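## retry 2 of 3
previous attempt timed out at serialization; input unchanged, resubmitting
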Amino acid sequence: MQARNLKYLVLSLPLLYLGYGITLALQFGSRPELINSAANGIFLFIITYILTKKAVLKTSIDFVWFVVFILYVFVLHHLVTYIAVGDFISSTYTGHFYIQTDMINLEPFTTIENTFRQTLPTMPTIIQIAGNALLLAPLSFFLLYFKICKRAGMAILVVFLTSCAIELIQLAQTTLITGFDGIMLPDGRSTDIDDVILNTLSGCLGVVVIYSIPALRKRIGKKRR
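## retry succeeded, writing output
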């Protein structure tokens, strides 16, 4: 099977995710988890399909790396944009929505500066800063590697827009939970302009890596000037 057709096998990954999640939810009789599994499985299938249609694979090794890319997307989704639709449906609606301003920072470099001004920064804070500085590097790398984006500037733009989307989704989540009783989001869900800055820099890092390695430059059709 040619690599360009082999790539469609990755569509089985979101289906496996969906099947596994639904099976566990039915086993434990959890209606919220059943809805969550369905919503996230469908979302991941759509994203996987779009990436698969646009990706250019040349060899079987490319297929292995494409599987790695899709699994990275799955992990990224679970870390920052997991859709807990079922939790909202099963919770008590109060309707008293409000924006949690203490979870929003729109002043650039404030969070970063405050972190490094601490006498002894905590490990979770350091991990969060470092994580944001690396989070989307694989995204820009693989977007260029599989020629989903043809130019570095376009890959960085996609990373920037992805980061903005992540922050907006987290803003929506932290706002929506105020109108329901009994919903808790994972730690670290906030809206911070510094996250966008660090995520975009991580996208630049991915571009630097792929442009710095001659074999990869050749793979994406770029010649050193």
